[in-house]
Amino acid sequence: MFEASAQKPSLLSLAVSDLPFPGEASFRQKQLAHWLYEQGAREFSQMQNLPKDWRAELAANYTINPFARTEQFPSQDGSVRYLFTLNDGRQTEAVYMPYKNRKTLCVSSMVGCPAGCAFCAPGALGFGRNLTTAEILGQLLVVAWHEGFAPKDIRNLVLMGMGEALLNYDNALGAIKLMIDPQALDMSPRRITLSTVGLPKQIRRLADEGLSLVLALSLHAPDEDTRRAIIPTAQAHPILEIIDSLHYWQRETGRRVTIEYTMLEGVNDALWQAEGLAKLLV
User: Torsions phi, psi of 194, nearest 5?
Assistant: First the structure.
């Protein structure tokens, strides 16, 4: 049995402006952020331009890596599945996808998922818990450590792993803000995609944040009956209500929406459903 114990907080849970600094030397925050996000330091001992006594104080009170264990499972196509064991013994995943001109990472926002989509493996696991900001952001840093490049080299990120990010809103948004912070990972929000099963209230809230993210909707059916059979939680939000929130997103952000549609033979692949989908998305 894995026994949880009190853990030191990860620095990855803090905004750059909230990072600790010694005495009046606030410029040390920027140096610390540089080591975390640009140099990809795994240990405080690597941060050679920081005072030795302060490095010891940081090590005594904080950690960097938010995971107890990391395992890698390479695929023949070059992608690598990462399995992270959290400090309470639960597990979550990320997938690293290297391409010729870019590095892409798919990260999780939860342990398991409460949506229960019929075709989705995490949905079959049920809901474990929300990931913290550090556990979401930490997937990116830890993958960079293991792959041997700087965290900033990952320029494309999708929140499409385990979980519904909009149900873990504050922690997911905290991680995204550090990803796009010029003093942290300095990613373009246009290269961050957030996938959702369609939560109108949260979609509108995210639109009001003023972030130029890419929003992806897991639709999978143009009619209520089929969609509810595929996504059990869909009954809480009618399709037209979701579509209305997407129009709000586009008006407020000026950003496109990606529609995700998994073809299931004999379930959502009929001609009338294709025609209904086309009408719905006009």
Answer: -115, 125
